[in-house]
Amino acid sequence: MDLYHEDILDHYSHPRHWGILSPADIDHEESNPLCGDRLRLTMQVKDGKIANIGWEGDGCAISKASASMLGEMLIGKTLEEARAIRKEDILERLGIDLGPVRLKCALLSLKVMKVGAYGLAHWNEAER
Amino acid sequence: MVAAPTSSVVELTRGDFPILAQEVRPGVPLIYLDSAATSQKPGVVLEALDRYYRESNANVHRGIHAFSERATAAYEGARAKVRDFIHAASAQEIIFTRNTTESINLVAYAWGLSALRPGDEIVLTEMEHHSNIVPWQIVAERQGARVRYIPVTEDGLLNLDAYNQLLESGRVRLVGVVHVSNVLGTINPVAEIIRRAHAAGALALVDAAQSVPHMVVDVQALDADFFAFSGHKMVGPTGIGVLYGKRDVLDAMPPFLGGGSMISSVTLERTTYADLPQKFEAGTPAIAQAIGLGAAVDYLAGVGMEAIHQHESALVGYAMQQLSQIAGLKIFGPSADLRAGVVSFTMKGIHPHDVAQGLDSAGIAVRAGHHCAMPLHEKFGLPATVRASFYLYNTSGEVDHLVEALERVRALFAR
Q: Minimal CA–CA distance to B150: which of B139, B166, B169?
């Protein structure tokens, strides 16, 4: 089970920032039709910085662990800094090498954040 | 306790599939339980492809030269083998396509766009693969026709009482049904479904992608109007599929694709079409792949389809019995005696992708997802399932490995 090291299993079993915030400045949900994964992310922004994050969703260990880790990365960042987070940052944080199918699981949280925060209409994993 | 089945089929055939000697990673042998997605290929099929390109390559139905005649004979020989294999009345009723999906699209576009009128109905089932749903939705929308569905019961069977009610509208023009479900493994009573369709004045199309590779089929005994399947799921190459259609039904249909080979004569104003099957085979076909399919059919017939079916039936019974011992594991679909070699399941609290990933670490290839049957998964309230599927080359030892690996996955996530 080389993919599932301790850190991923821990974030999966004990997701950080679990629960939807209300009210929220940013509230967005996306799903991955290929596997039925679904993720809703809410954020509160104070003085230009991400003050609180809350998310809920259904998905595999990779997608949930990546959402939990992304939440930790985002707290205290400005929206500009958040926008600069790239695919490579998520993969580095997960600490695993993924094939194209599982990459979609790993990057669902980043997609939700970027589409929700910046209204990006087009999402291309190769570029983000 | 069911004893692990032993089988002469697997002893006779296992060594014929070179890929099964591969390792997934150093020291981890491949355990291939994804044959419902695509089957592995025996050496004789690989050699047929190679030999064709080395010794006979030329275009078919065109040249007067020796190699074109040799290629044409081999290509048409493959058609005759497929005819024998499914017991069609004539080789002219065997149309080579790219795959099952293209075969169904051929019927939907060529027959559907010319025959369907506003208010007409197409009856499908809730357990169809997307390939037997989407083409009909597209064509129905264009023609103002309506698609209706035979419901699936909790046990993964078709509700045939509801089917009778659907037929009572008197507007059903075609019934499309999957012979063997790619998710539940259910073997549907297609002969009876076709009989009722005909009694209601409708044509019947069978998606046979998961049946032709695994059991004896006789299209005439079933009385199917259309029968669609793929080469790559029956130890043949990718890129070749078959549409069987009854001659009178095919004759009455306009062509699907226009181009070379499918004509009788062409002027700048109009074209008259070739006879069957060329009318539906525009352009240079997948010649090598058709010849490879012919070799696949010879191979399967040599092993014996009844023996293959018995082998898989014993294996799926054993797998269901062993899998049901695993805590939190839920199997979908009917009992082993009503299904082909497919078992889809979930594990409590573990996403199917994580199960499949864990199995991959043990060298075991399964499929996780909705298996191109989203409506069926929605019916069972599931985004995805894990599917293990078996073929003639799988062993009961591989089932034991699957069960052991699933126990390890369960332990990993149970902490």
A: B166
